[in-house]
Amino acid sequence: MTVIAASPDPARRAIDIFWDDDSEIRPTEQIHTHRAWHTLHVLLTGQESGGQPPATYVVEDGSVRLEWSSGAGTMTLLAPADVVAVAAYLDAVPFGELLATRLPRMRTDGDLCVYSFASWDPGPDTPEASPLWEVFDELKRFYQAAANAGEAVIKNRG
User: How far apart are CA 50 and CA 124, in angstroms?
Assistant: First the structure.
């Protein structure tokens, strides 16, 4: 993270790292939340956008916003301490309870609007067909591994 922050163009450096095009830093692992990222954000924060860290840091926001104007998406960076906080949050969050209480509010007649429940696989875009549990479990594993290694996380929503 120090290398990125010290760079003359931190966003360009983060993009290069993200696309595995940096000569010094290579991503150790990548995860893709598919189109279900917004549903996960709403489940974890109870809000369509924003929220409080560490819940909002899981998929939507970051402690450092990297300005990038090429259309590559919104890039955010989580410092190692933020990654530890997200890992602890995900380990403690009652995901099943959140599904039971917030999912009914995401229906067409509910008060929370979500972008999509789906993955990239063809099929119905419904909560029942969604990979939410799988993606949540993968996020837990990803953040725990990054926290254990003391790594920063670069996120691209594009």
Answer: 27
